[in-house]
Amino acid sequence: MTDITLFHTSTCPYCVQAERLLGRKGITAINKVNIEQSATLRDEMIARSGRRTVPQIFINGEHIGGFDDLVRLDQGGALDPLLGL
């Protein structure tokens, strides 16, 4: 099973798009971490990704990046293997 973590906020349209793209791939088990109300979770996201923007996506512990990075992986054919598809 693929482990996916999605750091997000509730108002981020790119977060929604990232979740939709993964859903189209049949991925429904996503560990969604809302960083809006927790400085600790925001700090964790920044420490793990080196970035301050959302979404930040991790697949099997590997930092993928944000939504644009996820789309590039998909368009380049590299996303399916990461997802085990």
From TrEMBL:
Record key words, sorted: Cytoplasm, Disulfide bond, Electron transport, Redox-active center, Transport
Domain spans labelled Glutaredoxin: 4-64
Alphabetical list of SUPFAM superfamilies matching this protein: Thioredoxin-like
Entries under PROSITE patterns matching the protein: GLUTAREDOXIN_1 (PS00195), GLUTAREDOXIN_2 (PS51354)
InterPro entries according to UniProt: GLR_AS, Glutaredoxin, Glutaredoxin_subgr, GRX_bact, Thioredoxin-like_sf
Superkingdom of this protein's organism: Bacteria
Alphabetical list of NCBIfam families matching this protein: GRX_bact (TIGR02181)
Known function: Has a glutathione-disulfide oxidoreductase activity in the presence of NADPH and glutathione reductase. Reduces low molecular weight disulfides and proteins.
Family: Belongs to the glutaredoxin family.
UniProt protein name: Glutaredoxin
Species per Swiss-Prot/TrEMBL record: Chitinimonas viridis
Gene: grxC
